[in-house]
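Lab manual, section 2.4: Encoding a predicted structure.

Procedure: take the sequence of the chain (314 residues), apply the prediction step described in section 2.3, and record the output as structure tokens. A sample record is shown.
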Amino acid sequence: MTISAFIDGQYGTTGLQIQSRLEAHPDVELLSIPEALKKDPHLREAYLNRADVVFLCLPDEASRAAVALITNPATVIIDASSAFRVDPSWVYGVPELTGLRSKIQTSNRIANPGCYPTGMTLLTAPLVAAGILPRSYPLTVQAITGYSGGGKAMIADYQAFDPEQAESAAARLKNLDLNHKHLPEMQHIAGLDFAPVFVPTVGNFEQGMLVSIGLHEAALAGNAELVHTALTQAYRDEPFVTLWPLNDQSQLADGFLTPTGCNGTNRIELFVFSTEQRIYLVARLDNLGKGASGAAVQNMNCRFGLSETTGLLA
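Recorded output:
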């Protein structure tokens, strides 16, 4: 089976990454509007309805407008914006989370997850489902990501920094209005009563991400061993999820956990550290891999009955 695929927004950061993966995919024919005709709205609409699968790599409103143009009921849409992630008529695109793989396999409307929520929900959703993490827990999520997550404008800014600017931008807090656009999906997909407190840090490196959550055992229905066991049971057969042993130190370099260890792959690594009634959960992933383009290709593979690892590095 050959799948015809069209990327709307192929020249953005995520679009280019999806394109590179699809070009190497053995089961995909990539449809592309000729450069001279890329602004032709009628041709774009034709491609949106011709392809077996359409990847939307657009801002939220532009994604909604593109969906309205797709009248072919057989077209599968994988949307990389945040427009539909909590829409009940769309399926959230994380096959590893309980119940979602079977829904992705039969849905023509798949909302690709955000990079931060991918780490956060894979760490917390199994704990909430098992009753270990109370739905009412006042969660705080920390994260550091490479600047590529901010798109072309942020990439250009960072790459143009002189040495003095680069030093001052080594790590900068973002979204201090405490109203990050990923909060609704974090709360909804993890199954929490309240949205977490979440302020990400952007680092002066291009790709890579760490998402971390601190927990107090006294507020949980279980300890670190039960937390680790719940994650083990949730992901034991998942090819892209690596759960390291409890308190594993093997991935630390001189005591540091770097955010770039999964770069270039669709792998996500989970860690559980604990001491004296305190637990610290960490997810490491490529923000442009499992956090964006790799996830989109995995969702396509899942939807069309291919091995989810096809065309992707674990």
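Check your result against the sample. The chain has ten helices and 13 strands.
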